[in-house]
Specification:
The protein is α+β, with helices and mostly antiparallel strands and about 375 residues long. The protein has eleven helices and eleven strands. The longest helix has about 40 residues, at about 50-90. It starts with a helix and ends in an 18-residue tail after the last helix.
Length: about 375
């Protein structure tokens, strides 16, 4: 009995004086390990008579539990003291900004399409969509393009082997103009729509890609004339580039789906290798740049859309979304839009929180 009390007293004293976890572990092995003093006492129980085991067993087990509890308590106290010491040393400055986390970016094409939709919505235009896989009636015939038109050639158009419902061929649309015909047939007149989306042509260089983005506009009503077209485009471009000095020049041209047809040029100047849209192209240091095609809707296209050209007139235009993004945000190679380079998108991408609004300015980073 005296030996058990001596071992317990000694163990508790040494455990209380342990300075670190390594010393505490050494004491655990010394007392409770396979060769430990308390473990040795437990082994003696097997050599005792039943009467001795009944008397000494609870005492030895009590010693073992007492040493175990003392070790656990001391370890818990050491860990708590170490945590308090570390927290005192590692103070957190709440005035510092939170660390940056990786965020996704809005692609410039998506940003610019949102900017355009915001501007035209303010002008009363609705957004219309259509299939990217078209038949040649909607893509060509309904737009007054005859069978001999060069745009129908294989070197310009991606065809499918499928036969279209009207007997023609299926293809990847080469422009969003089929949406105009589909909307006329579905909704009639008057109309005021824009048709944004992907289009496909067999072409590839620094300013052309096989797939690119286009937005077209269509207005159908009574009494529409070329002046309405010029005002609409001028108002749009002023809002898009966020400049009041936008000057347009309209040149006669030819498109099978408009008559008369006009190419629209815009004045610009070069500044540090970048084209800055604005100003009169005839002024010193300025020049003209072709920006888009437009014109009054051809009467035959109106008829294909189920409208009476004697009652209704309209105008239409089409422009490349990717090209307008390049002009506004200083990008010099169209192919980079589709390379999937994260570094490029990190540089030119937009925050998802930079939603274009007319009140705050449609450009997130003009």
């Amino acid at each position: 009995m005296a030996e058990l009390e001596h071992i317990e007293t000694q163990a508790r004293t040494r455990i209380a004086e342990a300075q670190d976890l390594a010393a505490l572990e050494q004491l655990r092995v010394e007392y409770l390990g396979k060769q430990g003093s308390v473990s040795a006492l437990l082994k003696t129980l097997g050599k005792m008579t039943p009467e001795e085991r009944q008397e000494q067993g609870p005492k030895i087990q009590g010693l073992r539990q007492s040493v175990t509890d003392a070790l656990a308590a001391r370890k818990s106290a050491m860990e708590e003291a170490a945590l308090e010491q570390r927290m005192a040393a590692e103070t957190l400055d709440l005035s510092l900004p939170a660390p940056d986390e990786a965020r996704g970016s809005v692609h410039p094409v998506s940003q610019v399409m949102d900017e355009m939709a915001e501007i035209f919505a303010d002008l009363g235009f609705a957004v219309a969509t259509g299939p990217e896989i078209e038949d040649d009636w909607y893509n060509f015939t309904a737009l007054n393009m005859p069978e001999s038109h060069p745009a129908r050639a294989m070197h310009d158009t991606f065809y499918f082997p499928d036969t279209a419902p009207k007997g023609g061929r299926m293809l990847l649309r080469t422009h969003t103009s089929p949406v105009q015909v589909r909307t006329m047939l579905a909704d009639g007149a008057p109309l005021r729509i824009i048709a944004p989306g992907r289009v496909y042509r067999s072409d590839s260089d620094a300013t052309h890609t096989p797939m690119f983005h286009q937005i077209e506009g269509l207005v159908i009503d009574k009494g529409i004339h070329l002046g309405h077209l010029k005002w609409t485009l001028e108002t749009f471009l002023k809002a898009y580039f966020e400049r009041e000095d936008i000057v347009l020049r309209l040149r006669p041209s030819y498109f099978p789906f408009t008559e008369p047809s006009v190419e629209v040029d815009v004045g610009y100047r070069n500044e540090k290798g970048r084209r800055i849209v604005g100003g009169n192209g005839d002024d010193a240091g300025h020049a003209w740049m072709e920006l888009l095609g437009s014109g009054m809707v051809n009467p035959r296209v109106l008829e294909m859309g189920g409208l009476d050209p004697q009652e209704y007139q309209g105008f239409a235009w089409g422009l490349g979304v990717d090209r307008l993004a390049m002009l506004k945000y200083g990008m010099d190679d169209l192919r980079a839009f589709f390379d999937g380079d994260h570094r490029w998108l990190s540089h030119y991408g937009f925050s998802a929180f930079d939603q274009p609004t007319l009140s705050a300015g449609v450009g997130a980073r003009a």
